[in-house]
Design a protein that fits this description.
By secondary structure, the chain is of the alpha+beta class. It has a domain of 195 residues: Naphthalene 1,2-dioxygenase Alpha Subunit, Chain A, domain 1, CATH 3.90.380.10. 37% of the residues are buried. It is built from five helices and 17 strands. One of its GO terms (molecular function) is dioxygenase activity. It comes from Agrobacterium cavarae. Keywords: Dioxygenase, Oxidoreductase. Pfam families: VanA_C.
């Protein structure tokens, strides 16, 4: 299976705040790399044989690539807005395809069943009509006008509300979620999923948030988001096949899966096949 199209993408490989001068080893697409901080305080990434890799530091993370990225890391303008709290949630290792992890993040139909009485509840299980598109100018997948009733939409929420979402996929293993901000109507909370592909069936997931929330302790914000994703992990690790099927005939979509369908079509268009299953077995 070719990984040519994926090799030139940016991937998270560690937290800036935890970067050590003597370095730490991790995997990127099956290759051992070392992430360290040099004498000038800047991040460096190299392969086991000493080949220097491209590096950028944004959104609380060190990013690198085994290839040569054609463009800078995608922009999240909200990260620069005054008053937002930038939250490094940490990392969760998941035994699934990195593409499966992103697709699960795009799915709202599972909220009442996996995140019961937090992000969803019965009988509020209907997914209303929403809009999905591949924005050609930015080359990104977007889902807008997504609305869902949630008993506790955020750690700062005091009761159930109908939450509005926008989903954005700016890179094959990254997704950005914009959602109703309970403390500041008219603004969006930003919750991201940055996925590091360790192998085709194993990944590290690095959630990160940019929130308007001046009251909730940082530890509580982190624990709330970790709890949500840990509820997802058991589902992800039991999906068969582990790799994300790109053949439209391998899994039957419903109206709630429109974003997933667009995401898979976008992956296939760009030959993003690392961590994907192309034919039925």
């Amino acid at each position: 299976m070719s990984r040519d199209a994926m090799i030139d993408q940016w991937y998270p490989v560690g937290l800036i705040s935890r970067l050590l001068s003597d370095g730490q080893e991790t995997l990127l697409m099956g290759e051992t790399i070392c992430v360290s901080r040099n004498g000038e305080g800047k991040a460096e990434v190299a392969t086991a044989d000493g080949r220097a890799l491209p590096v950028t530091e944004r959104y609380g993370h060190v990013w690198s690539s085994l290839g040569v990225p054609e463009k800078p890391l995608f922009d999240i303008p909200e990260a620069e807005q005054p008053g937002r709290r930038l939250v490094d949630v940490g990392v969760v290792r998941v035994r699934c395809s990195p593409l499966r992890a992103v697709e699960n993040f795009l799915d709202i139909a599972h909220f009442p069943f996996v995140h019961t009485d937090i992000l969803g509840s019965e009988p509020h299980t209907e997914v209303e009509n929403y809009k999905v598109e591949i924005r050609e100018d930015a080359d990104e997948v977007w889902a807008t006008q997504v609305k869902f009733y949630q008993p506790q939409a955020a750690k700062s929420a005091s009761g159930g509300i109908t939450t509005e979402y926008m989903y954005r996929v700016p890179a094959p293993t990254c997704s950005v979620l914009y959602k109703t901000c309970p403390p500041k109507p008219g603004e969006w909370d930003v919750i991201t999923l940055f996925v590091q592909p360790l192998t085709e069936e194993l990944c590290d997931v690095w959630p990160w948030m940019a929130l308007y929330d001046d009251e909730t302790p940082m530890t509580d914000l982190i624990h709330f988001q970790q709890m949500i994703f840990l509820q997802d992990r058991s589902i992800l690790e039991n999906q068969i096949p582990r790799r994300l099927p790109l053949d439209p005939g391998m899994e039957i979509p419903t109206r709630a899966d429109l974003t997933s369908v667009a995401y898979r079509r976008w992956l296939k268009r760009h030959d993003f096949t690392y961590g994907a299953q192309l034919v039925a077995q």
